[in-house]
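Two proteins follow. First one:
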Amino acid sequence: MRHHMDSIIRSDQQLQETNPTQELVFPSANITETPLRINLHDFLFLEVVKNHVHVYLYVNGQVTSTVIRNTLTTILETVEAPTLFRCHRSFLVNLSHIKTATGNSNGYKIILKDYEHYPIPVSRSFVPAFQEIIH
């Protein structure tokens, strides 16, 4: 696939159907920390490294990150939105921020708007679901 993500018609339609002010709540496994609350539109992606979740989001128009202690399994059980897609065992991405994707049936690399220097991997096990979204 070498074309731009202008063809992500399904995710754009889903985004229009959802509440643009929907809030995502990321719980922390550390009981002394309050849950992280983010507007869905401000959420870019998250990466899990062991028991730490690195959440990348927009704050005042700039991409920033914050870390909470948790696992991706727990996050997936508590956070739901039609534009969120698990693309790898360690990554969850907001489909509404995808700029392009390159790759083939062995895997893709997702490039996000305003965050082009860090491609997000789509592992082989998630490729069929990703292809279903982009076609």
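Second one, unrelated to the first:
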Amino acid sequence: MEKNIPAYLQWRNWPNTGLFIFSLIYIGEIIYNRGFNHSFVFFSHTFTSFYFMVLGFVYYYRLIQLEIAIYAKSDCVFWLVTGLFVYQFANFFINLFFPYIVALYLSDVNNLGILIINILRAIFNVFFYGAWVYAFICKYRETISSSSSYA
């Protein structure tokens, strides 16, 4: 992603900034919940999803700004970012609506809320890993085609 992020956004500082903010939120949640055993790190998980969504938006915005077209079907970076972006986008909204889903779970004898969460996460996991596998296939094809030209 780094090669497609504009220089004025100072890409090198983004990972460190995100990691620092995540660490503060995570440690704060652990302290507030009095240890690891009694805490689901909701805010740090939601922040991580939001942060990766922002990075994905920046990547797509930069792709739109490029004066040359990319061939998305065979671009491994595009598929890595797309898989991560869609997965984190789904996680962000599942986290936002988690209290409502839990309320649905508690009010429903058939456990419909948990079923909904499991189905959504399974669908987005398949998309995420499918996109990453396809990205690795694209990278493999790119590597094979570039190495065969040297032979």
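SUMMARY FIELD: The longest helix spans residues 112-148. The chain has a mean pLDDT of 78.
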